[in-house]
Write a structure and sequence with these properties.
The chain is of the alpha+beta class. Helices cover 18% and strands 63% of the residues. The chain has one helix and three strands, in the order E-H-E-E.
């Protein structure tokens, strides 16, 4: 039997929201195995001089653990 756990991560990118999500998954995978899904909870963009300077996401990563 396995259990699904969820962690919440925050990641950013200077390029796009898509890259920010990929960065979140990349960082989570350094310490968590058996990742099954990622759910983007919130998206933020930082603006400076009327230009987007960075993209950020708050995401939930689910993974399985065996008992």
């Amino acid at each position: 039997m396995s259990t699904v756990k969820i962690i919440e991560v925050i990641a950013s990118s200077e390029t796009s929201f898509d890259d920010a999500v990929k960065n979140a998954l990349k960082e989570a995978s350094k310490s968590v195995k058996n990742i099954k899904s990622i759910f983007v909870k919130e998206m933020h963009a930082h603006v400076d001089n009327n230009q987007i300077t960075s993209y950020a996401v708050n995401a939930k990563v689910s993974f399985t653990v065996k008992k």
